[in-house]
Amino acid sequence: MENITFLKLWNTIVRYFTATVFFLVVGLVSSFGMTPNHISASGNTDTISNTHIALPSSWNGLEWLNPFYEISVDPDCDGDGVTCKQEEQDGTDPNDPCDFVLEHQDCTPSTAWKNSDCDGDGVTNQKEKEDGTDPLNPCDLILEHQNCSASNEWKNMDCDGDGVTNEKEKEDGTDPFDPCDLILEHQNCSASNEWKNMDCDGDGVTNEKEKEDGTDPFDPCDLILEHQNCSPSDEWKNMDCDGDGVTNEKEKEDGTDPFDPCDLILEHQNCSPSDEWKNMDCDGDGVTNEKEKEDGTDPFDPCDFIPEHQNCTPSEEWKNMDCDGDGVTNEDEKEDGTDPLDPCDYNPDHITLPQSGDYLTADCDGDGVTNEDEEEDGTDPNDACDFVLDSQTVDPSSTWNASDCDGDGVTNEDEKEDGTDPLDPCDYNPESITLEPSAEWKELDCDGDGNPNDKDPNPLEATAVDDSGSTPALTEVAINILENDDYLPNNDDNNVGVTNLSRIGGTATGVVSFDADTGIMTYTPTELESNSTVTVVYQVCNVLPDPNVCASATVTIEVGANTIDAVDDSYTGSTSGGDIVDSDVLSNDTLNGEPVTLAEVTLTSTPTDELTINDDGSVSVNPGTAEGIYTITYTICEIANVENCDTAMVTVEVVEGMANVIDAVDDSYTGNGDIVDSDVLSNDTLNGESVTLEDVILTSTPTDELTINPDGSVTVNPGTAEGIYTITYTICEIANVENCDTAMVTVEVVEGMANVIDAVDDSYTGNGDIVDSDVLSNDTLNGESVTLEDVILTSDPTDELTINDDGSVSVNPGTAEGIYTITYTICEIANVENCDMATVTVEVTEGMVNVIDAVDDFYTEGTEGGAIPNANVLLNDRLDGGEVTLSNVILTSDPTNSLTINDDGTITVDSGITEGEYTIEYTICERDNPENCDTATVTVIIEEIEVNQMVTPNGDLKNDFLFIRGVSKIKSSTLQIFNRWGVAVYEGKNYDNVRNVFDGRSRGRSSLSVNDYLPAGVYFYIFNYETEKGSFTDTDYIYISR
């Protein structure tokens, strides 16, 4: 059919065209169509190339075979696939193929429509329908299906509202329908509000806000966190913008910065950190984050790292830090090679910062005292043995525990457990010693006995050990009493003290001597001590310390029996019988080498038919005895030891008649030159009578040393040395020159002559203090009565008796009735080797009063007067051996002008008293027996504390140092001496006149060097001192003279 041009009326005609067709011929009718005019979108009339009449859908059935079926035709005027009627209903233009409701297309669009591009988006309508996109929506298309030219409108449109036109997006290769696919710099139009409010990168900040912030709206990790104004995407939440291994969402929850790779909670790492993060060093400690995680250290703590693992350069902040608080920067510690993490490993010379933190709480030397406390105490925090024990607040180190600070061989730990001082080498438990003591400890003398610890069996206690020995009767014994003691003799090079030995008790009454140089004690027992055990209690002291260090022990000596010797005798008797003249069987018998007497031995003998030994030792020939030689035995036994006996034989020749009996008796003398009162004849006899030169002829041959003179006196020849010498002499009866006898004279030659000292035995009856007893009362020196100014009286108390220092005798409390003896010795003061011994015998009876003893007292006090501190006259008094109190005695005393003994026994010095020696007596009487009293004397030396005002340091031992009188009463003091310009030249504490003295040398702040002697002149002193009475200050001038 040719193209036909219609008027617009055709629209109406066609619109309402209805045909009724009757089909008379059976045939196929597929369609009936007309070609209407096409009206463009602009409303102009176009040539209609084809007009569609829409057939009812029921024609799909067989109704069309009904010749009477009415077909209603609804045309599609604009070919847009929507009938005109529908378009009218839709309110769209039926003549505008691009104005329709797509969903209302109810007929086949025209080819023209199909090839048209209603929305100008470059995709034909047909293709859009195939694609399922909206041909009326220029922004609803598949870009790849654009098959025609897009309209300019479309090109200038911004389908996705991203501010970039569709044309520009095509040029850029971005998606014009993806508002988040664009080149931001190519935005050439206003972005839509939707785009502005969108969050393309899902970072929770709208695109508009990101543009305002200058951040990239397409970079989810380029944002200002505080500007998040919408919910981030899940992708963003699960992202790790800073690569620190913690997702952005987790960081927001933690309050850490998701864009700061060093701001995170390490335990919340929930994804793999980035390589950049791994190689970073967040804390600047020189160890990468990855290495710190491997090491288990904190990558955010600059002081938590392993120094050996530092694998990058530390930060300047780290270098200037002091991780361990030791005051040395980390950088300096690295340079020094010390550990910046060890507060105890540093170079003290490089301390530039205040010590703090770990250093203060650390215990560098392991002594249990923190460094901070050591600094407060002034001890060395790096010296494990310099600390204050009371400051230990932490557990000491195992090294400290096992160490021995004081070198005493006991570990510090053991000392703490024992409660001893680990810093005091002399305070330890010997049973805890497990280490070798130090050389310093070995050189110490802890107990002050003069024996260094190394050699001392008991280093902590000066010890004297009991000794024992034995000796024959009257025989000296030497015992090394120091051999088993801690103390050393003075001749021992190891002795660091000065040893002194003295006797303080024991039962021995013989002669005791001590040699402190060798440690030897010698003892010579008395005869009375034979066959007994005696003791000597001695005290050994190191007298170098003040006070002296002393110990005591007992020496037990077994004394053997006396040596008794009965010697055979021979006599000549007469047949007429009777006593043999001068016969005495005891005359040549001895006890301990000395002639015996019947006072010492008992004599027993059984008479024979011919002979009898009488009780006095003489021998008698029984009457009627014929001439001949006869024998008889006798026995002597020591009275003191009746089992100590000896037997001898007496031989008697009985003859007719008898010559006179002449007897020359041995003599002994001591002296030099002509021996005073010597006479060898004085003990010789003729028929029992003393001989004279009228009866006998005296002959003797002089020796080199001795001469017996014609008158019988003995002379020591000039030049004779000290020693013992003998000479013999013979006497012959003048009437019978053949009747002779010889004797020996023994002389001990000594230098000069000793005075004759004679201690005489005493006997008393009594109990307690024996009234009027005085063992010296009958003793003499050169025939004169002795006093304690002449002799030294010594005696060892027995269990029962005591000889007091004044010579009186006391019976010890509890002594039973009986007879007891005690010996004493007196030695001449001028010659202490000139001694004699005597025995005191006391018969103790019942009914004796208690022994009351008021003992003299001595005190020293100053001139200020008042009560004497710690003085009481009763302290040393005794009643029956016990202490005296005011409950058992009555105290009486008459005050003097200077002293008063108060009712309680204290002593008061009158005020204003001057220096000197004052005495006062007091009496104590037993309350139960007021007649039992004793009196004593109190002596008080008044000595003022006074500074001598002259110093002459010239070595003459007079005023060589400043002497302060009365320092013994001073508890503490300070002395300052100034020159005339007020400069201190001496400053000292606790002046003692011994070690701490001013000897004229500088000891202050003067320009002179220490030890320089000060020039002569006047100096001013200030002496502050404290006594029991209070504090005092004395100021005055002294003069130094050279």
From TrEMBL:
Listed Acidic residues bias regions: 323-339, 364-380, 405-421
Chain positions covered by the region annotation Disordered: 114-136, 242-261, 275-430, 442-471
Compartments (UniProt record): Secreted
TM region positions: 12-34
InterPro entries given in the database record: Ig-like_fold, TSP3_bac
Compositional bias annotation for Polar residues: 390-402
Keywords for the protein's UniProt record, in alphabetical order: Calcium, Membrane, Secreted, Signal, Transmembrane, Transmembrane helix
Listed Gene3D superfamilies: Immunoglobulins
Keyword check for rRNA-binding: no
Record-linked Pfam families: CHU_C (PF13585), TSP3_bac (PF18884)
Name of the protein described by the UniProt record: Gliding motility-associated C-terminal domain-containing protein
Native organism taxonomy: Bacteria, Pseudomonadati, Bacteroidota, Flavobacteriia, Flavobacteriales
